């Protein structure tokens, strides 16, 4: 009996089929989008400390999350993370119009143009003196000139604000984030998102009030053309509502 030949399978188009299937799955499959937040980490500067000032509790907006995803905001249990932004706005604005020493929120200071210019001249003189000091550390020199830049920005900000005084939240006021490693990343991302939302809303309110346009519009325009006027506007809004976020390692 003759041996039957097994017909060959034409596999010439298998590669095309596999490629089409790959394209199909790439197009139709949905993937979770990672959320990431960029923070500018300041350079460490070893400046001699002469006076240690303790941070007042009223100036700390503490957010803590543990391995059970329990959320504590200013030592109070918070069930809904969506409420974080409202609490942050309250933290910034509670004493903005008028200081109330009886509450537990940061106090505000108000500085005139004369005070700003006096401090600016003093900062310039100090920076030049340090720069001319033999063997002066470059980090210290840079630090002193950054102080000059800060006072210059405040002078420009007050001119742009068009008011007799520049309001500033207490220099110690900050948001402290303490999240344990076992905390779900989803909660960590939500905390960051709420903080960004609060700062954006605060700056947007001020932009609408002072400039008659949104903070987002100013930000986008500056990113496109780097105009000095838009930079001055953003500097003013940053002075009014600084984003001072500090992430700390949880205590064991």
Helices and strands in order, then pairings?
Layout lengths: L13 H15 L31 E6 L5 E3 L2 E2 L6 H10 L14 E5 H19 L6 H24 L3 E5 L4 E6 L5 H27 L3 H11 L2 H13 L4 E4 L4
Q: What is this entry, summarized?
A:
This protein has helices spanning 14-28, 84-93, 113-131, 138-161, 185-211, 215-225, 228-240; strands at 60-65, 71-73, 76-77, 108-112, 165-169, 174-179, 245-248. By secondary structure, it is of the alpha/beta class.
Rounded Rg: 27 Å
Amount of beta strand: 5-15%
Q: How would the global form be characterised?
A: extended
Along the chain, the helix and strand elements come as HEEEHEHHEEHHHE
- Rounded mean pLDDT is 86
Share of helix, binned = 40-55%
Number of helices, counting only DSSP H or I runs of 4 residues or more = 7
The count of β-strands is: 7
Low-confidence stretches: 34-38, 41-47
Count up the domains.
Answer: 2
Structural class: alpha/beta
How many strands, what sense, and barrel or not for the largest sheet? 5 strands, mixed
| End-to-end separation | 83 Å
Kindly report the spatial arrangement of strands forming the biggest sheet.
Answer: 3-2-1-6-7
């Amino acid at each position: 009996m003759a041996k039957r030949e097994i017909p060959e399978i034409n596999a010439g188009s298998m590669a095309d089929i596999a490629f089409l299937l790959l394209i199909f799955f790439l197009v139709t499959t949905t993937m979770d989008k990672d959320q990431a937040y960029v923070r500018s980490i300041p350079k460490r500067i070893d400046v001699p400390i002469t006076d240690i000032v303790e941070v007042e509790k009223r100036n700390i907006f503490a957010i803590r999350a543990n391995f059970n995803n329990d959320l504590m905001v200013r030592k109070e249990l918070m069930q809904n993370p969506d409420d974080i932004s409202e609490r942050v706005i309250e933290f910034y604005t509670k004493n903005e119009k008028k200081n109330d020493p009886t509450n537990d929120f940061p106090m505000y200071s108000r500085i005139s143009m004369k005070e700003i210019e006096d401090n600016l001249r003093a900062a310039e003189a100090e920076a030049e003196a340090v720069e001319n000091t033999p063997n002066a550390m470059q980090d210290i020199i840079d630090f002193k000139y950054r102080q000059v830049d800060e006072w210059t920005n405040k002078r420009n900000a007050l001119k742009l604000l068009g008011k007799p005084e520049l309001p500033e939240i207490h220099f110690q006021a900050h948001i402290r984030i303490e999240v344990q490693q076992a905390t779900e990343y989803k909660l960590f991302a939500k905390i960051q998102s709420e903080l960004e939302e609060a700062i954006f809303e605060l700056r947007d309110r001020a932009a609408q009030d002072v400039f008659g346009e949104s903070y987002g519009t100013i930000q986008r325009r500056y990113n496109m053309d780097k105009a000095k006027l838009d930079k001055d506007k953003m500097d003013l809004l940053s002075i009014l509502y600084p984003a001072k976020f500090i992430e700390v390692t949880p205590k064991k």
